[in-house]
Amino acid sequence: MKSRLGFVMLFAVALILLLLSGNMTPTAAGASPRIRWDTISLTFPNGVPTINAGGSDFASAVDLTTLQISGHGTFTVAGAPVTGGGVWATSGPSGTASGHFIVFGLLKFDVAPGSLPPGFVDNIGDPANAHSGLAILRVGYEDGSQGILVVSCDLPVGSPSGLFEGVTATKGFVAFHERVPPVPGLDANRNIFHVVP
User: Fold this and answer.
1) With the C-alpha atoms ordered 97, 86, 126, 114, is the resulting torsion angle positive or negative?
2) Are strands 174-176 and 166-171 parallel, antiparallel or unpaired?
3) Is 140 exposed, middle or buried (0-12, 13-18, 19+ CB in 10 A)?
């Protein structure tokens, strides 16, 4: 009960701050585009690579406790209100817990070179609007802790070699600093960014 009340209070504070900022108007033409981020599911029905929302990413702490993240949201670099969140779960020596999280701030976003190859089915957005990049988001977890979520996307065509695919995160005083990389044949640890209307 106490953790749910804390989550509701955190959500209410984030909403009040957004309303007080006065920046609730849609992005004007020519202004900063709205970006959608997703943890994705990549499957191959009939051999066709297909992207859907709802995948999971994993990162691990120094004691090998894992944090699982599944979510999506939107933001603009110009500072319009952020949206989004999802679910989280920890498992390992530091304990097992789970719940929801909300995104309440964008600290940084950098788009990177990179695109999808021809033949991908993208059920989230227009494949022409898919991008590689790195987003650093402020998040609040349902148990009352806060942290940073780093979402990175390294699309197959033209992405720089220094870009990684996956997430890293903090949750309170624990850093889940080791991302779990995607592995062929395993539907996990992949993300995507889209420019959306």
Assistant:
1) negative
2) antiparallel
3) buried
On whether the CB atoms of residues 187 and 58 are closer than 8 A, the answer is no
pTM of the model: 0.83
d(CA 146, CA 137): 11
Q: Token pair of 78, please?
A: 């110009």
Count how many Cα atoms sit within 13 Å of the Cα of residue 183 in the half-sphere of its side chain: 5
Q: How do 121-122 and 50-53 pair as beta strands? A: parallel
Tokens 């950098």 correspond to 110
Residue-wise pLDDT for 147-195, tens only, equals 999 999 999 999 999 999 999 999 999 999 999 999 998 999 999 999 9
Separation in Å, CA 149 to CA 22, 70, 85, 146, 152: 25, 11, 10, 10, 10
With a CB cutoff of 8 Å and minimum separation 6, the contacts of 161 are: none
Q: Are 52 and 192 in contact (CB under 8 A)?
A: no
Tokens representing residue 71 in the block: 């979510």
Residues whose CB is less than 8 angstroms from the CB of residue 177 and which lie 6 or more positions away in sequence, other chains included: 59, 61, 62, 168
Q: Is residue 103 predicted with pLDDT exceeding 50? A: yes
The single residue listed with the structure tokens 């220094």 is 162
Token pair 């600290």 is found at: 107
